[in-house]
Design goal:
Layout lengths: L6 H12 L7 H4 L1 H10 L17 H21 L7 H34 L7 H10 L5 H10 L1 H35 L7 E5 L13 E5 L4 E5 L4 H16 L10 E3 L4 E4 L9 H21 L9 E4 L2 E4 L17 H11 L32 E8 L7 E8 L8 E2 L2 E2 L6 H17 L1 H4 L13 E4 L4 H10 L9 H8 L1 H4 L11 H9 L6 E4 L4 E5 L4 E5 L4 H10 L3 H16 L23 H16 L2 E2 L6 E2 L1 E5 L5 E5 L8 H15 L2 H16 L3 H4 L8 H14 L3 H13 L16 H12 L5 H23 L12 H15 L2 H15 L2 E2 L4 E2 L19 H12 L5 H17 L11 H15 L8 H12 L15 H12 L15 H4 L2
GO molecular function: metal ion binding
GO biological process, one term: peptide modification
InterPro entries: LANC-like (IPR007822), Lant_dehyd (IPR025410), Lanti_2_LanM (IPR017146)
Length: about 1000
């Protein structure tokens, strides 16, 4: 036995070290203090591992391990008829508890190891020798170890509690196994009842250290123990049996469960490979079926760890969150709450499918994610220089461990990207099966009835977020005083997104996390509230409806419109990891369509308008409307988010299309919709946008849209609103660092020059000059920098040259014209006669002459030459315009139907050229080509594309309206309508 302080002195020092409030903490002055006294006053020196020297800081853990084994051995004596392999069981007990205790203490022990090295406490010639001396001598010295406990009393309590919970939970499992063995032999076909190992911690650790556990039996059989009621699991078994009666192709399968009230047993699901390609297809077909089923039930948290691939069957293994409920957030931003509500009532909410919420997220933990995709790495902690006194934990990228959620064929994990159609087909079949039998589901004897008295886990915050804070709380700084660790967890109170409602759960969250446990909240399915009890209070939060009513409400919303929206969300999710690129369609236009009449164009534009309305999300008052869409992340795929209020690919572009559609068709539905969407877009303006002056993504996007709708709706108030946004840009001009047509001052100058042409208001010219001076400095700096300048319109030389030409035309300042000429000459140097195109500097040699878009390549360059040639007498500009026009006709009309980089954008440019030079094109009419695009588009849906103006279906619709009526202003040319009725000009 180690020498020690007298018990009374040890006890008092530990209480004092734990914190001034510890005398009010029954755990501080009661059970755990007594337990650590027992732990510290027992014989040590027992060899717990054959390779004890290979166990980091094993001497520090030894008293805790011996104490646990002593108590669990006593339990086995009481359960003498329970057949166990004692040696194996004890070995695994030591292994598991050792790992848990090391996780709690390793950061502190490494810090103390370094202090011992620097202070000369540890002896030895080498770094390895000094670590060995530290572990085998210092950590066996009672006085030294007590100094650590007094320095880190929170660690002392955590390790003591962890040991106590380990003993209590294993005692619970052993007792229940002993009691239920006969039932298990019968119901689970247990052939051997010799227990060799209990592996706890398979899932998250909750109340008193309890978690899902695996029991290993002597003949290789395994059994799952869950420390909660399995009524939900049994209910789901019955639900899937009911479903399979109506759709035997789906053939859902579930584990066998035995519910014992407060705990339960479940059959172990073995990960199995598929044997054929057809089995892989059926796996993903069934997976799509689950996406629909769990969407309709309102499920949550079905991440990759909750799914096991059993050959061709995806098996769901945790039903705690099969249902859900939601408390509305308290926010003045109605559109933000609307987005949260829309996602809550969508296929994204179950976590079965990828849902990247921000550009920064780089890990997919959905049921389809984790391993085998493009990113097989994650940030983790790695121990460097182990078994030396210089060891340290560092954060670095580590390989993810393959999970069991993906099918495997011939030893290779098979991801979902080649099975999108199977997932979509499964979703469709499952959705329609439930839709057709929805009345039976809610009937008095229907499958939903089985869940009436079930308890459901409520997810307030992601387990990962809790986990990260728990890991951070094990830093030595947080283990010295209880109040410091408490302050860390108070972060949830200070930064709660869901105040004041969700902030009420923070005291319970903190109480659980101080015990090193993940908080768990549960509610009754037939209740409209959730009750949360802490040691100091009882909190009750109300839901708008019961869990059962919520499912009934979801069933009532099923139908064609909901199906199309959810299928679009599913498609967005499944393609979100693909790199941003132009979506190619199967057949390209070939100008063989027959034009019936111009109504074809309007009909398709209306189809697009109707789909945009169907895919929108409204608040209850039908006053706020938003859209959810894929948003590109450089070259790394997409994330899913609310459409920002921008002209380029956001809600303002949709507003512009819908307003024009209402005017062209005379249908007030589209006009009224545009008005509501415009108001929401105005409400959504962000600080970032206020700092951005650009037309396509900033303040002047509002101005441009308002100028257009002022003319469309013949309402001068919108013109006055547009002027307010124009006035605001003066404050932010110098903050512009993008400079170009799409993101900066160049586009602003072109728009202001168009306003100068229509009105004598001096503000437009003054702002244009200020933007011009800023742009001049910025572009000159770029010319001499390593970054250089691209060719083309949207981000390159043509866009800048056009802007400076417009500025020269309204100011007569020769510097602007001269600089524009310099930029044109630079671009001319990159023209290839062989390719009839300008080099796209974004790409290497094999692709550098392939771009034929408004944004990059000859079409946009040609558009700039068109407007420059109107003002500058330079025959070469006209030659370049003609070259660009020819390139569009030969190579620019067999592209996807988009404005920024597609066939409709190129047709729009041809329309502008035709209008300017009053000469018809030398090929079949542009309207014929537009109709052919219509015919092709009729075979696809808005779910296949983004929604916005420049890169999505709103742009397709706007392009069709332009084909129908070329007098509609071209957004690609930043044209504005005649504003004389508002300007007095």
């Amino acid at each position: 036995m180690l020498n020690s302080l007298p018990n009374s002195e040890f006890r008092q020092k530990l209480i004092e070290a734990y914190g001034i409030n510890a005398v009010h903490d029954t755990l501080a002055t009661g059970d755990w203090i007594k337990t650590i006294e027992w732990i510290w006053n027992q014989p040590t020196g027992t060899a717990l591992f054959k390779d004890q020297d290979d166990r980091l800081f094993s001497s520090f853990m030894e008293p805790f391990l011996i104490f646990a084994l002593k108590n669990l051995d006593a339990v086995l004596l009481e359960l003498e008829s329970l057949d166990v392999n004692r040696d194996l069981l004890e070995h695994h007990w030591c292994e598991e508890l050792y790992s848990k205790l090391l996780n709690l203490s390793i950061r502190t022990l490494i810090q103390e190891l370094h202090i011992a090295r620097l202070s000369g406490l540890s002896n030895g010639e080498t770094s390895e020798n000094r670590y060995h001396n530290y572990n085998t001598v210092l950590l066996k010295d009672r006085e030294y170890v007590e100094s650590i406990l007094f320095m880190y009393p929170v660690l002392a309590k955590l390790m003591t509690d962890e040991t106590t919970k380990f003993i209590e939970y294993h005692t619970e499992i052993l007792t229940h196994l002993h009691k239920d063995m006969d039932t298990l032999k019968k119901e689970m076909s247990i052939q051997s009842h010799v227990l060799e190992r209990i592996s706890t911690g398979v899932g998250d650790t909750h109340s008193k250290g309890r978690s899902v556990s695996v029991l290993y039996l002597g003949n290789g059989q395994r059994l799952i123990y869950k420390p909660r009621s399995l009524s939900m699991d049994i209910g789901f078994e019955k639900f899937t049996r009911w479903f399979n009666q109506w759709n035997n192709k789906m053939d859902f399968r579930t584990p066998k469960s035995i519910d014992c009230g407060s705990y339960g047993w479940q059959s172990y699901v073995q990960y199995m490979e598929c044997t054929t390609e057809e089995e892989v297809k059926r796996y993903y077909y069934r997976y799509g079926g689950y996406v629909a089923l769990l969407y309709i039930l309102g499920s949550r948290d079905f991440h990759f760890e909750n799914i096991i691939a059993d050959g061709e069957y995806p098996i769901l293994i945790d039903m705690e969150t099969l249902f859900s409920n939601r408390i509305a957030s308290d926010t003045s931003e109605v559109w933000r709450e609307l987005f949260l509500h829309e996602m809550d009532r969508s296929v994204f909410s179950s976590m079965l499918i990828p849902f990247k919420r921000t550009p920064e997220e780089d890990s997919d933990t959905s049921g389809l994610g984790n391993w085998g995709d493009s990113n097989n790495e994650m940030i983790g902690e790695v121990l460097q220089l182990p078994y030396t006194d210089e060891m340290r934990l560092v954060s670095q990228k580590v390989k993810k461990k393959p999970a069991n959620n993906k099918p495997q064929l011939k030893g290779e994990l098979i991801g979902f990207h080649h099975y999108l159609s199977e997932i979509q087909a499964g979703f469709k079949d499952s959705y329609h099966t439930i839709y057709e039998h929805k009345n039976e589901i809610v009937g008095s004897h229907g499958p939903l009835h089985h869940f009436k008295n079930s308890k459901v886990r409520m997810i307030f915050r992601s387990t990962n977020e809790y986990g990260e804070f728990l890991k951070s709380s094990l830093h030595p700084d947080y283990l010295q005083k209880l109040d410091k660790r408490t302050q860390l967890f108070a972060h949830f109170q200070r930064n709660s997104v869901y105040t004041p409602y969700y902030a009420k759960v923070v005291p319970y969250e903190m109480e659980c996390m101080l015990k090193q446990e993940i908080p768990v909240f549960t509610f009754d399915m037939d209740s409209d509230h959730i009750t949360i009890e802490t040691t100091e209070s009882r909190i009750e939060l109300r839901f708008p409806m019961t869990g059962i009513s919520r499912v009934q409400d979801r069933l009532n919303c099923l139908g064609k419109q909901d199906f199309e929206k959810q299928l679009r969300y599913l498609t967005m999710s499944l393609t979100s990891s693909l790199k941003p690129q132009v979506i190619q369609t199967e057949n390209s236009p070939n100008c063989n369509a027959q034009v019936e009449d111009k109504v074809n164009l309007l009909r398709l534009a209306q189809k697009i308008g109707d789909e945009l309305i169907e895919h929108a999300a409204w608040d209850r008052e039908k006053q706020t409307v938003i859209w959810v869409d894929r948003k590109p992340v450089a070259d790394e795929g997409h994330y899913i988010g609310i459409l920002d209020p921008t002209l380029y690919d956001g809600s303002l572009g949709i507003v512009l299309f819908m307003a024009q559609l209402g005017k062209e068709t005379g249908d007030s539905r589209y006009s009224n919709f545009a008005r509501e969407a415009l108001q929401t877009s105005v409400d959504m303006i962000t600080i970032a946008q206020k700092n951005n002056i650009s037309v396509f993504s900033g303040l002047l996007g509002y101005a441009y849209t308002l100028l257009q709708v002022a003319s469309i709706w013949e309402d001068g108030t919108y013109y006055e609103e547009a002027l307010k946004y124009i006035d605001q840009i003066k404050e932010f001009i110098q903050k512009d660092q993008q400079f170009d047509i799409v993101g900066g001052s160049a586009g602003v100058i072109i728009l202001l020059a168009r306003l100068v042409a229509q009105t004598s208001d001096p503000r437009f010219k003054m702002l244009a000059i200020e933007c011009g001076e800023h742009l001049l400095r910025g572009v000159k700096d770029l010319l001499v920098s390593k970054q250089g300048l691209l060719n083309g319109l949207s981000h390159g030389l043509s866009g800048f040259a056009w802007a400076f030409t417009e500025l020269w035309f309204i100011t007569s300042e020769e510097e602007y014209r001269s600089f524009a000429q310099t930029l044109v000459e630079l671009e001319r140097a990159d023209y290839s006669k062989d390719h009839n195109n300008w080099r796209d500097k974004r790409f290497k040699e094999t692709q550098e002459f392939l771009s034929v878009y408004w944004c990059h390549g000859s079409p946009g360059i040609g558009l700039s030459r068109l407007y420059m040639a109107e003002k500058v007498d330079d025959p070469r500009l006209v030659d370049e315009l003609e070259a660009a026009r020819t390139k569009i006709i030969t190579d620019g009309l067999q592209l996807p139907p988009f404005l920024c980089h597609g066939s409709l954008g190129n047709i729009d440019i041809l329309l502008s050229i035709e209008k300017a030079i009053s000469r018809p094109p030398d090929y079949k009419s542009l309207q014929e080509l537009g109709v052919e695009i219509c015919l092709k588009y009729n075979s696809i849906s808005a779910r296949d594309f983004q929604l916005g103006l420049m890169t999505g279906v709103a742009g397709l619709g706007y392009g069709l309206l332009r084909l129908n009526n070329p007098e509609i202003p071209s957004v690609l040319s930043l044209e504005i309508p005649v504003l004389g009725a508002f300007t007095g000009a």
